[in-house]
Write a structure and sequence with these properties.
By secondary structure, the chain is mainly alpha-helical. It contains 6 helices and no strands. The longest helix has 22 residues, at 3-24.
Length: 130
């Protein structure tokens, strides 16, 4: 085998190896959920250092829209937290809807979501005549 042919085979082997390695390379596993600033915002809300509820709701709704557009999943607790904010703003229907959605998305949250839903319905039951 000639030296030129041998050099050509070495280059071909090197190019094939590089192509295989490049094909195997990736950016690592993608996150399961689109978290963004949600954990920080939730922490700030719970420590009373967060923005006003309407501002928080706008941020979370923007986050949810971005996740929908990207085909990403919302993180656990996201809908529950937004539901709490909606309730603090007097929107019980939205709170109920969000807590039911949290329960569907994360069945392990059902006991807590059921407790919140039960408390939400309690004033209505007291108001009805016996």
């Amino acid at each position: 085998m000639s030296a030129a042919r041998l050099k050509h085979l070495h280059l071909l082997a090197l190019a094939t190896t590089l192509a295989l390695l490049a094909g195997c390379a990736h950016n690592g596993p993608q996150p399961l959920y689109m978290w963004e600033a949600f954990p920080r915002q939730q922490y700030e809300t719970l420590t009373a250092h967060g923005a006003a509820p309407p501002d928080q709701m706008a941020d979370l709704e923007s986050h949810a829209e971005k996740a929908r557009a990207a085909g990403a999943q919302l993180p656990p607790g996201f809908r529950a937290h937004l539901g709490m904010l909606k309730l603090s703003n007097g929107d019980t229907d939205q709170a109920r809807e969000l807590w039911q959605a949290e329960k569907l998305a994360f069945p392990e949250s059902a006991p807590y979501m059921d407790q919140l839903l039960k408390r939400l319905d309690a004033p209505a039951k007291k108001a009805k005549p016996a």
